[in-house]
Write a structure and sequence with these properties.
Blueprint lengths: L1 E2 L10 E2 L2 H5 L1 E3 L15 E3 L2 E7 L5 E9 L3 E6 L4 E7 L10 E2 L7 H5 L7 E3 L5 E2 L3 E4 L2 E4 L8 E2 L12 E6 L4 E9 L10 E9 L5 E9 L3 E2 L3 E3 L1 E2 L13 E4 L1 E4 L13 E2 L17 H6 L14 E6 L9 E8 L4 E7 L3 E5 L22 E6 L14 E2 L5 E10 L2
Antiparallel strand pairs: 1-2, 3-4, 5-6, 6-7, 7-8, 8-9, 10-20, 11-14, 12-13, 15-16, 16-17, 17-18, 18-31, 19-30, 21-29, 22-26, 23-24, 23-25, 25-28, 26-27, 27-31, 28-29
Length: 406
């Protein structure tokens, strides 16, 4: 089945190939049969169903990626948003899989405003100081949607666009390709950008998010996947008891607006010391308590900083950058990425005002975001890995979510 959603007009074209939709293919073997280990069960192509209608009349769909064992991802073409991710409860249990990402149960919830739950953020995620930058001697002014700064692509960034969706059964597992064209001048950025993000669910329950972009004129790109994770369940409350290890020896200090100061500081002897070799493992509660709110209330406290990935090289290879663990359930989430940085955000601005799935009010520190990326505000720091993208180049960003279930 192929579903095309055209963001450039009000029309919505659906082309169906029933043979592809009806056929389930075998996934790769998890081990050779001579080792007496079972093959993976057959895999099926993604399915989809309506998820509502935009104010201009365009229909929105929700796509389901599912593999045997209880693993399931739900993704909508509005914002290329991951709305649900279900993880099995573990061996020897007959309980139902647990949804471990925060999100909204309806399209209306996303349209009403949300803190980038599960979204694809771009063109440039995170913050750009002052909402301005220069490229080849020309000054560009962007939308300011975070005080005096630009955040996550602006007022109508990639997270608020309707993407063209193509579901398929890939060699790795069920997948959906999302594509969009951001015209020159969109939110103030130069050049037209063709962006793509692919979600894939493997037979082992790995969630792959692969992002890419090209341009017809020099511009900047730094796309991010922005899920909020609570391994105890999206409705389980705080993540203070979770343990976190980040493979980073340094982080970027920020000013009161969340803009990096330009320094690269060691994590040693700070609340940012989340190195995996620390024993016992660091709980998020202890790290959060080491970063209290400001007296005037403008800073809610907690972590919202970019960590510098240890040993990163611009070779496109995947590295383990973070491991999140919920001791109570025994679930773990390992993040692998090819990016030089990872933004750790402990949900400090959640305040219960946003009602999510099942009417749950998501309170402060109800989840954590682990956003692999190039460094925030990198356009103002030429010594950092560059966010510049020129014609003929392809921006690429891969992150893998690898789960462990006790």
């Amino acid at each position: 089945m192929r579903v095309l959603v055209d963001d450039r007009g009000a029309g919505w074209l659906v082309r169906m190939t029933m043979l592809v939709a009806a056929v389930c293919l075998h996934g790769p073997a998890s081990a050779s049969t001579k080792d007496d280990k079972p093959m993976h069960a057959p895999l099926c192509a993604p399915t989809h169903h309506p998820f509502g209608t935009l104010p201009d009349g365009r229909p929105v769909s929700l796509f389901t990626l599912e593999v045997p064992g209880g693993w399931r991802a739900e993704i909508t073409d509005y914002g290329a948003i991951l709305t649900e991710f279900h993880v099995p409860v573990g061996s020897g249990s007959d309980g139902q899989p647990v949804d471990v990402v925060l999100g909204c149960g309806t399209l209306a919830g996303y349209l009403a405003g949300h803190p980038y739950f599960g979204a694809t953020c771009g063109r440039v995620a995170n913050r750009i100081a002052g909402g301005v930058f220069e490229l080849d001697g020309r000054r560009y002014t962007l939308a300011k949607n975070n005080g005096e700064n630009h955040l996550h692509g602006g007022l109508v960034g990639f997270d608020k666009k309707l993407w063209k969706a193509t579901p398929r059964l890939s060699d790795r597992g069920p997948a959906v390709d999302f594509e969009i064209v951001s015209p020159a001048g969109d939110e103030g950025y130069p050049g037209a950008v063709a962006a793509r993000v692919t979600y894939t669910l493997t037979p082992d329950g790995e969630l792959w998010v692969e992002m890419s972009a090209t341009t017809d004129a020099p511009t900047i790109v730094n796309m991010v996947h922005h899920s909020y994770w609570n391994l105890a369940g999206h409705d389980a409350g705080t993540i203070r008891g979770h343990e976190l290890a980040v493979t980073a020896d340094a982080y970027l200090p920020v000013d009161t607006g969340g803009i990096p100061t330009g320094a690269i500081a060691p994590v040693a002897d700070t609340p940012f010391d989340l190195r995996p070799e620390r024993r016992p493992a660091v709980t998020l509660g202890s790290a959060i308590d080491g970063l209290p709110p400001s007296a005037d209330g403008t800073n809610p406290g907690g972590i919202d900083h970019n960590f510098v990935v240890r040993g990163w090289q611009p070779d496109g290879s995947l590295r383990s950058v973070a491991v999140l663990r919920d001791p109570a359930s025994g679930r773990t989430l390992e993040i692998l990425s090819d990016q030089p940085g990872i933004q750790v955000y402990t949900g400090n601005f959640l305040d219960g005002s946003v009602k999510g799935k099942d009417g749950v009010a998501y309170a402060k520190q109800a989840a954590i975001c682990l956003e692999t990326q190039k460094y925030p505000d990198a356009i103002h720091h030429p010594e950092w890995p560059s966010t510049r993208l020129d014609p003929g180049q392809t921006y690429r960003h891969t992150m893998v979510h690898r789960f462990g279930v006790r």
